[in-house]
Task: inverse folding
């Protein structure tokens, strides 16, 4: 009415400009510029003491030449790009390949020529996951009956050639295993954080035993 | 001597800053007045229904994420309910509450996008309301990341329940967000609803009458803005909506402003529903025992949910195998688009973009 | 320092016999032009940075902060980018006019700065161009050339969308010149002369307080002249194309951009001189600092408006100009004229401060009355929201429950 609504809109804008908890909801990735005040705060000193102690760095920070890393951490359940594969557990059953909606996983196991005993594993020749076409839905992780395949936790897999995006079995074996907690309640129960801590070896990554219905009812507590 | 004028047909092409996605509109103008509108779409067609015939029932969940990519949970829910109806799978109660919680959170996020983009087209340069809406939507997406590891293409639901239970930190963050959300919606309303310029541009523009809406089977906030009381959550309650108390906002005139206002009011009701879910939820399993490859009996089923854009329905015909024989998707944005010509003819060029924005069309759904 | 003193200074230095007055003239003129040009363009570049940062902070995000400390070199990066872009010229464009249009748009903004009195009272030198005793008329006339520049740009592009946009822009610009000029007559009547220096001297009580209606009308009309939100349908990309500068790229586009960002600075300085008292201020702080502070406040106001409000439709803009601002400006002019007639001392022609405050009081009340009346005429009833009544066509409680 008569311009009062317009003034109310301007009050909202002013509030967003002035209030401190509305500012800077932006996370810059992967690094952000930092000034002398921020540098002093990071080294836990007074601003003036910092400027006196390290004048060259303060001037460089003031001019805008210093940047610090600022990687916003994802939740441990984040479905990342690199896959964590425990070869000691994988039997080559290819459930993950069968369950993938896009048909990305390619598994070729070697023929042993004899009847396979129970408890033995197929030797795996080829285990390719093409993350150039993967949509990271996690159905393969859901399908694995032995908890051998886990989602990764990173997303910085950019390369210059598309064929480098195919993860082959050597790379899967060699990579440090930082499994995401998605669909793996045993990691979550141990509060494993893939972004922070070290890699998880296969003997420390537990197996998930499916509980009975009563246990299901009791175990997932309310909050 | 009368001046001879000629109508001109121009192309609001597939690449345009204000069509929501790749959408082409061939408009015939006489000066500034719109004479005829011909929508051309299909630029985002990915063959979802055909692909669904080749995938198993659980794999199709990932396909349904990408239909209305701004509201992934409700797509999943509609599909999963249809499969459960087809194969008589029971869903545990905690899963039902989680589903309703996620649907309502997703409704808030989707309406935030709709409101933000409507204001962007009205011309707030650089998009102050857009940025505010996206800032709050980020918090909802952070909650989703805690829940299922992804932000937009969630594939959280499965026939038989949901994938995983929520971690403990989820409930704390959810409570904080729900406490702050009504104050935040008030602020957004203070910026938009009483603004005279917004009112002058959206009041009495693009009026849709109830008869026209029902004839064209328009659903969702567009229908409710015309004054028709129809919401699937109340008319045909599914999941645990019959235990929730909430209102269904309706509009009065059916113009652009009413459509926007219905969406903002629905956001407040969604907050109420989420709070009730948090109070009523009880411990239990979140997924019933279904095999990886679900094989329903031969038959057909149709189930619909109240998606943020309207009534989203899946019609699945099964022949007993692991994939459906036919999966037909009733996309609300596609059906809501059919009234576009009636909404736009006779209005001016400046109203074109706003009315189209208020119909809240997402091309992923229209083209499938 | 104004042109005359500089000219005489140089002429006195040159040897008398060689009759080199034209050289003195040339040197003085080019020095002043160089100074004004550089200072104003640097100020505009800084203003683009400031605007982007402040808009971003309002929107809870950061503005440009990569280039240089706090992103201060961002305008430099923008200019470099625009300079190395290809300068496309349409085949059947009207070449001389095509090249001329950005210049026509840029120069009036620069010329406004040359008549602003920046010295201290009593202004023995006036502004850069001296004591111009038709200052207000000069400003109004010069800003009218903007419309010409826009139209030439649209015409020379031979592009029907550019022409379309340019015609709408010209219609808007021309119709907003009328309320702007009428609002300024209020100032002129109260000050008694057209010279900007006299207007500043006459503001014992600043004209913002004594003529709020005039200030409102002037700022609104100036916003529209600069095509700023809420009147920026000229550059509305969500409608057709990009308006009159569709076919321009490279450095010509940079000139358009520059002209567009120079306009708020010019309008702010003019508003400061005419309505906020120019270089008047309290003693320990020099007058120039007061001037910058006041202009800064006006710019902040313009930016704040830009961040918050959406834009009006074309016919609504024209309606607002002719049915809203024009009557208000006329009313303001008559009101000020009547008051000056009543309160002015017939001998000296001055109005005392006490009477100015009385005028201020009367004017504020009448401003509110006038705005309410005009708002009613423009259609407030349409903005009220009716109570929703459920339609009987579909009732979700009728069937199942």
Result:
């Amino acid at each position: 009415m008569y311009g009062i609504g317009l003034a109310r809109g301007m009050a909202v804008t002013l509030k967003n400009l002035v209030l401190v908890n509305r500012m800077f909801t932006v996370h810059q990735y992967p690094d952000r510029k930092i000034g002398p005040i921020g540098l002093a705060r990071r080294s836990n000193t007074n601003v003036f003491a910092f400027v006196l102690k390290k004048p060259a760095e303060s001037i460089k920070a003031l001019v805008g030449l210093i940047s610090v890393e600022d990687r916003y951490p994802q939740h441990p359940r984040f479905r990342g790009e690199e896959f964590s594969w425990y070869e000691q557990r994988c039997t080559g059953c290819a459930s993950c390949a069968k369950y993938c909606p896009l048909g990305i996983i390619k598994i070729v196991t070697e023929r042993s020529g004899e009847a396979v005993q129970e408890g033995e594993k197929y030797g795996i020749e080829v285990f390719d996951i093409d993350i150039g076409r993967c949509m990271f839905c996690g159905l393969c992780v859901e399908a694995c009956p032995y908890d051998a395949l886990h989602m990764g936790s990173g997303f910085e897999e950019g390369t210059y050639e598309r064929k480098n995006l195919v993860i082959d079995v050597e790379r899967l074996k060699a990579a440090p295993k930082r499994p995401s907690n998605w669909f793996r309640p045993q990691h979550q129960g141990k509060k494993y954080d893939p972004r922070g801590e070290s890699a998880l070896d296969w003997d420390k990554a537990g197996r998930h035993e499916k509980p009975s219905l009563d246990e299901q009812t009791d175990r997932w507590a309310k909050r | 001597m009368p001046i001879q004028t000629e109508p001109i047909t121009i192309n609001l092409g597939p690449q345009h800053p204000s069509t929501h996605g790749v959408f082409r509109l061939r408009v015939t103008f006489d000066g500034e007045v719109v004479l005829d509108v011909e929508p051309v779409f299909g630029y985002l067609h990915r063959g979802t229904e055909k692909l669904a015939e080749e995938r198993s029932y659980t794999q199709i969940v990932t396909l349904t994420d990408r239909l209305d990519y701004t509201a992934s949970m409700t797509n999943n829910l509609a599909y999963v309910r249809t499969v459960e109806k087809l194969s008589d799978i029971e869903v545990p109660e905690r899963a039902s509450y989680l589903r309703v919680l996620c649907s309502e959170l997703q409704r808030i996020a989707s309406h935030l996008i709709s409101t933000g983009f409507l204001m962007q087209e009205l011309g707030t340069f650089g998009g102050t309301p857009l940025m505010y809406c996206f800032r709050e939507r980020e918090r909802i997406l952070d909650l989703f990341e805690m829940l299922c590891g992804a932000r937009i293409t969630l594939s959280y639901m499965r026939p038989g329940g949901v994938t995983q239970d929520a971690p403990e930190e989820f409930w704390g963050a959810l409570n904080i967000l729900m406490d702050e959300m009504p104050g935040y919606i008030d602020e957004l309303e203070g910026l938009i609803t009483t603004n005279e310029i917004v009112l002058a541009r959206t009041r009495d523009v693009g009026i849709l009458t109830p008869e026209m809406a029902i004839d064209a089977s328009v659903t969702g906030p567009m229908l409710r803005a015309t004054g028709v009381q129809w919401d699937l959550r109340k008319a045909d309650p599914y999941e645990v909506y019959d235990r929730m108390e909430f209102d269904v906002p309706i509009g009065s005139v059916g113009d652009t402003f009413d459509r926007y206002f219905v969406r903002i009011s629905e956001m407040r009701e969604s907050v109420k529903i989420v709070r009730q879910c948090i109070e009523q939820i009880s411990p239990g399993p979140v997924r019933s025992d279904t095999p990886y490859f679900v094989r329903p009996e031969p038959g057909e089923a149709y189930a619909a949910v109240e998606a943020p854009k309207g009534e989203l329905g899946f019609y699945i015909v099964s022949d007993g195998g692991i994939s459906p024989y036919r999966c037909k998707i009733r996309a609300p944005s596609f059906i809501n688009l059919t009234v576009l010509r009636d909404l736009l003819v006779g209005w001016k060029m400046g109203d074109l973009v706003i009315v189209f924005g208020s119909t809240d069309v997402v091309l992923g759904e229209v083209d499938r | 320092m104004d042109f005359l003193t500089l000219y005489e200074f140089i002429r006195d230095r040159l040897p008398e016999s060689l009759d080199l007055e034209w050289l003195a003239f040339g040197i003085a003129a080019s020095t002043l032009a160089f100074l004004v040009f550089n200072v104003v363009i640097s100020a505009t570049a800084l203003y683009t940075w400031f605007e982007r940062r402040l808009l971003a902070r309002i929107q809870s995000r950061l503005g440009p902060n990569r280039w240089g400390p706090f992103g201060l070199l961002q305008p430099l990066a923008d200019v470099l980018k625009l300079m190395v872009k290809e300068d496309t010229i349409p085949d059947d464009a009207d070449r001389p006019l095509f090249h001329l249009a950005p210049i026509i748009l840029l120069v009036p903004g620069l010329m406004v700065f040359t008549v602003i009195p920046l010295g201290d009272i009593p202004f023995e030198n006036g502004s850069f161009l001296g004591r111009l005793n038709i200052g207000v008329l000069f400003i109004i006339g010069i800003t009218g050339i903007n419309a010409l520049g826009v139209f030439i740009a649209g015409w020379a592009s031979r592009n029907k969308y550019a022409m379309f946009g340019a015609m709408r822009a010209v219609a808007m610009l021309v119709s907003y010149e009328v309320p702007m000029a009428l609002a300024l007559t209020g100032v002129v009547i109260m000050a008694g002369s057209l010279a900007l220096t006299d207007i500043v001297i006459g503001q014992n009580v600043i004209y913002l307080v004594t003529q709020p209606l005039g200030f409102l009308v002037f700022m609104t009309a100036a916003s529209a002249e600069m095509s700023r939100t809420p009147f920026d349908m000229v550059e509305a990309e969500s409608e057709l194309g990009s308006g009159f500068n569709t076919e321009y790229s490279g450095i010509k586009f940079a000139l358009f951009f520059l002209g567009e960002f120079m306009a708020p600075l010019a309008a702010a300085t003019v508003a400061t001189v005419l309505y906020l008292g120019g270089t008047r201020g309290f003693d320990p702080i020099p007058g120039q600092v007061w001037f910058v502070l006041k202009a800064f406040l006006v710019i902040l106001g313009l930016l704040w408006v830009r961040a918050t409000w959406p834009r009006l439709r074309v016919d609504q803009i024209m309606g607002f100009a002719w049915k809203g601002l024009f009557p208000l400006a006329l009313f303001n002019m008559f009101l000020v004229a009547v008051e000056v007639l009543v309160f002015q001392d017939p001998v000296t022609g001055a109005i005392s401060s006490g009477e100015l405050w009385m005028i201020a009081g009367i004017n504020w009340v009448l401003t509110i009355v006038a705005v309410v009346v005009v708002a009613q005429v423009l259609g407030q009833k349409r903005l009220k929201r009716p109570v929703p009544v459920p339609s009987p066509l579909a009732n979700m409680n009728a069937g199942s429950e």
Q: What stands out?
A: Chain A touches chain B at residues 1, 3-6, 8-9, 11-13, 15-16, 25, 74-75, 77-79, 99, 101, 135-139, 142-143, 151, 180, 182-183, 185, 188, 213, 216-218, 220-223 (CB under 8 Å). Chain A has a mean pLDDT of 77. Chain A has two domains: 4-69, 83-208.
